[in-house]
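Lecture notes, continued. The same structure-token format from the folding unit now serves as the input rather than the output. Read the line below as a description of shape only.
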């Protein structure tokens, strides 16, 4: 619900959790005017627990003013930052993004496993990498395998889920490993800045290598004997029309 006031051009959007978000596009250009209207706004707000504001990077000059009045950082992206102010004592604040997501691929063809070496680890491991913002698991799998090896694949199933903490940026990391079916065989590394080598290797030879991490060996062994979780393509499982999702059973 949109809320407007007669003393300011600032517009609020109220949410179902008794919070309000300042529409940053309605913030006055003058910092002094914004400060005056912000204080009036805080005073006038009733029955609200939190006041949010999401600033574009070009509005970063407003951050000192907001922190002056007890706004704190909640989360940020490359071009924006979201701050929140508590309007009551000990409100419940939704957790900010606190995980990074990665995907790995078990790709087998004629009893051979697709593996890579990158410039950091320099030991044979499964192809894969970070899942991009708003990217599906299956799409990330296909993209990462192609970038690492030039091999086109089709998603089959999820065979392993690892949770590691602390991970990158001191956050938790979820590592989703999937089986994938190869649609091509010829290796042609696309991401040559990161990948040193890609090859097909006999599965038993891979499992016998001393410098392969035991975790990777266990993943491959389990992928050989387990079907894993498949994408459920049933309709109407999720009723929210604008939600991009994948569900695995």
């Amino acid at each position: 619900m949109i809320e407007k006031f007669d003393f300011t051009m600032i517009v609020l959007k109220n949410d179902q959790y008794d919070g309000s978000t300042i529409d940053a596009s309605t913030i006055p250009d003058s910092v002094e005017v914004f400060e005056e209207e912000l204080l009036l706004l805080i005073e006038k707000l009733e029955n609200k627990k939190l006041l949010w504001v999401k600033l574009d990077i070009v509005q970063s000059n407003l951050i000192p003013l907001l922190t002056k009045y007890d706004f704190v950082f909640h989360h940020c992206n490359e071009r924006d930052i979201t701050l929140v102010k508590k309007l009551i004592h000990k409100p419940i604040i939704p957790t900010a993004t606190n995980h990074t997501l990665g995907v790995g691929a078990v790709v087998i063809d004629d009893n051979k496993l697709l593996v890579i070496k990158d410039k950091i680890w320099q030991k044979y491991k499964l192809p894969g990498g970070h899942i991009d913002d708003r990217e599906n698991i299956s799409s990330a799998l296909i993209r990462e395998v192609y970038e690492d090896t030039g091999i086109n694949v089709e998603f089959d199933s999820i065979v392993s889920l690892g949770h590691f903490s602390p991970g990158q940026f001191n956050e938790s990391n979820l590592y989703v490993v999937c089986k994938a079916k190869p649609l091509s065989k010829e290796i042609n590394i696309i991401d040559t800045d990161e990948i040193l080598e890609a090859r097909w290797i006999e599965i038993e030879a891979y499992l016998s290598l001393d410098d392969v991490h035991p975790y990777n060996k266990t993943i491959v062994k389990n992928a050989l004997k387990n079907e894993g979780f498949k994408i459920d393509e049933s309709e109407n499982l999720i009723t929210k029309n604008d939600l991009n999702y994948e569900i695995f059973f």
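Point for the exam: Residues 208 and 217 are 9 Å apart (CA to CA).
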